[in-house]
């Protein structure tokens, strides 16, 4: 039997029936990198993302018998990954610890690149200030390109609830982003006025 040709769902069923590591190892090979990259998008730390990935696969192997084929295995694993990362960010409070002075070293000779970098930083800072649940649903939709149906299955909520949460999360992000832009705009304006004022 060529395990690489088996579907995820077949691998799960065979592992549950036989408890042979071969089947679980194939699932690990298929998804460990994706889970790691998702963890890394939450914690921004290689070592911590690796720890999270190991914990998630340990959680997975202990709970594999509870998997129901009402959703795709990848969607179910995605849900476990998101929930674990959200729980961990709540515990550690790391989602609010983003420095205000990160990456302010764009080249002086390229104003457009500098402004784009500042805007990207402000958006990233805004993402860190909203709730983990809000951040995760926005990432599912706009970073991972999941459909409303896939997000619904992953979070085990209705499609209308997904749409409502997305709307609220986008509004919250927009508000936080604009407040940050306004704040820094005022700061820069004051610095410029101080620099150029006539004594």
Automatic annotation (TrEMBL):
Sequence intervals crossing the membrane: 176-196
GO biological process per UniProt: DNA-templated transcription initiation
Gene Ontology MF: a single term: sigma factor activity
Protein species of origin: Arcicella aurantiaca
Alphabetically ordered keywords of this record: DNA-binding, Membrane, Sigma factor, Transcription, Transcription regulation, Transmembrane, Transmembrane helix
Pfam families noted in UniProt: Sigma70_r2 (PF04542), Sigma70_r4_2 (PF08281)
Signal sequence interval, chain numbering: none
Keyword Electron transport: no
PANTHER family for this protein: RNA POLYMERASE ECF-TYPE SIGMA FACTO, RNA POLYMERASE SIGMA FACTOR HI_1459-RELATED
Family (UniProt): Belongs to the sigma-70 factor family. ECF subfamily.
Matches recorded under InterPro entries: RNA_pol_sigma-70-like, RNA_pol_sigma-70_dom, RNA_pol_sigma70_r2, RNA_pol_sigma70_r4_t2, RNA_pol_sigma_r2, RNA_pol_sigma_r3/r4-like, WH-like_DNA-bd_sf
UniProt-recorded name of the protein: RNA polymerase sigma-70 factor (ECF subfamily)
